[in-house]
Structure prediction request, 186 residues.
Amino acid sequence: MKFSPWIALLLVPAAMAQTAAPPAGVSSEWDVRTLLDGLDRQAEHLKPIIDQVKPETWVSHGAPPAYIAQWKSGEAELRYLITSSQSLARDPEKLTLALDTYLRMQAMESTLGSLIEGIRKYQNSALADLALSMMAENSTNRDRLSQYLRDLAAQKEQEFKVVDREAQRCRGVLLNQPAPKGKSSH
Prediction:
C-alpha cells in the first residue's frame, strides 16, 4: 500500500516525534536589544504627540469627558510600555517580561487608536495623522516582538519538556533501586 508523504508523517511514532528538532530558536540577545531600542525610540517619538493632546478643551466643543480618562490612560500605557521594554532589555530571556511588553504595546495602541478619532474631530487632524503614522511605523516592531514572544515561549516549552523527561528518568532510577537493608543488631 502506497501512502502520500503527508500521511506518512502522521504515522511517525510518538517517540520519534518527541525527538524532533526543537523550534528554530529565538532571536539573539543582540537582535532583541535592537528590537527593544527601536520600540523605545518609537515610544519616545510618540510621547511629544500625546503631550500635545488636550482633551480637557475638547469637552467645551462637545466631546465626551471620557476622552480625558482615555488620554490619561494612554499616557500611563506609554510609560508602562517604556518601563516594561527596558526591563525586558535587561533580561531578554524572561518570558513574563516579553509577554508584559507585548501586552503593554497592544494596550497602548488600542487606547491611542481610540483617542486618535477624538484628536481628529476635536483638536487637529494633522496631529491625529502624525499619531497614526507613528503607530503604523511601530507595526514592524510589534510584529517582531510578537514573533520573539512565540519563539521564546516555544523554547521555554522545549526546555520544560527536557527537564520533565529528565526528572521522570531520575524518579524511575530511584524507584528501581533496591530498598536499603535494615541495620543488623549484634
About this structure: The domain at 28-157 is CATH 1.20.120.230 (Four Helix Bundle (Hemerythrin (Met), subunit A)).
